[in-house]
Structures are given as structure tokens and as C-alpha cells.
Known about the structure:
3-stranded parallel sheet; 65% helix; 4% strand; mainly alpha
Amino acid sequence: xxxxxxxxxxxxxxxxxxxxxxxxxxxxxxxxxxxxxxxxxxxxxxxxxxxxxxxxxxxxxxxxxxxxxxxxxxxxxxxxxxxxxxxxxxxxxxxxxxxxxxxxxxxxxxxxxxxxxxxxxxxxxxxxxxxxxxxxxxxxxxxxxxxxxxxxxxxxxxxxxxxxxxxxxxxxxxxxxxxxxxxxxxxxxxxxxxxxxxxxxxxxxxxxxxxxxxxxxxxxxxxxxxxxxxxxxxxxxxxxxxxxxxxxxxxxxxxxxxxxxxxxxxxxx
Length: 269
């Protein structure tokens, strides 16, 4: 808890440090949306409490640090890395599937916009590390993507801050409160995403690997569908014996192939 003597203006003085820590944490996989913080820092840059160029450099540096860490870990850890990231992701049910489809379709160019897309941004770097994207292409496009991501939201905040400056009656209060409002907005996003995550998990019937093995050993012959994207198979090509390979899109188109008299088990990354 902050003491009563600590004003919101004092918080603004630590804007660079907060920006660096928050964006780096987001890029390292923490479920902490950085957009509200970037916009708030952009607002403060319009009021001369922070500078736009310095904030942009710090934000891009944070992106590069986080992405470099995950590129190295992704190269070495492969599938296990994706499993960990999806467990902490705000959208774990779709993060790998959407990212695999997106990266395989757009290749290195996907890194330019991946950070703007919730769910995809979480695992885009480890997936890119295990695809055919070269190291030079990865860092070039990741740098441009980080610059685009950071500068876009900083610019949005700066435009907002410039408008606030013209409203003298509320300018001081809004300038000093911008970072606190950003923190509250980020926490609100996290709370909503976790609520949605719990709602999805409670609505879907689940079976553990051990339970599936028991069904197979008993000779119950469940109909098993492997929903992984071909790009995911590069990291871990293993599959359950007898499983049918389909993508989620194919599952909708080939539903007539699914038997009605057997237990159906779907699994993905």
C-alpha cells in the first residue's frame, strides 16, 4: 500500500521504470497487458513529464529482451515451452492453435503485427524459433514489430494527452492520474480474461492422459483426434497411437467421419 503522502504525480516520476518492468513482464509471458501502460506513458509524454523518444526506446528494448529470451528458450525447449506459456496465457485454449495458423500463413511478416493480437503474441516468438524463419529475419522483423507496437500506443496516448492539455479545468488531475488509471485498466483486463478462462474450462468436459490410457487398456477403443497444427509437430512430432490427424477447421468439415457409438477424445498442443 502507498502511504498517504505519496501523490499520483510521484508515481508519474517513475514512469520509465514502470514502463520497462511492465512491458518486459508482458513479453516474458506474464498475463499483464501493457497497452494501458503504454497509452498512459504517451499521455505523460504530451505533458512533458516524460519524453516520447525515451519511452519508445525503453519500450522497444523491453520487447527485444523478452523476445530474445523466448527465442533462445524456444529453440532449446520446443513443445515444453509452449505448454508453459499457454498455462500462463490469458487465452490458453486458443493461443497455440491461432499462433501456428497465423505464423505458417504469414511467415516472418507475422512478427510485425503479432504483438497486437491477444493470444497470438504470447507464443509467436517460440513458434517462430521452431519454424524455418532465419535468425536474421527473426530479429529484423521482431525489432520492427516491437517498434510498431510500442510507438502506436505511445502515439495514441500522446494524442490523447495533447487534447487533455487544452482542457485546463481537468488537465492537472488527468495528468497525475493517468498511470493509476492505466494500472486499474490493466488489472481489469486480467480479471475479465481469467473469468472468461474459468467459464470456458467449466463448460468443457475434460479427460486426463492417465484416464485416456485406462480407457485404451480396457479395450474401449475411444476415437482420438489429434488437432495440432503441422507447425506444432515440428517441436514435438509424437502422437497417440491410433489418433486421427485433423486441424480444427477440418474437424468441422469432416464431422460425418466421427463415430456416434464411441467415446470421442480431442487433444491439441
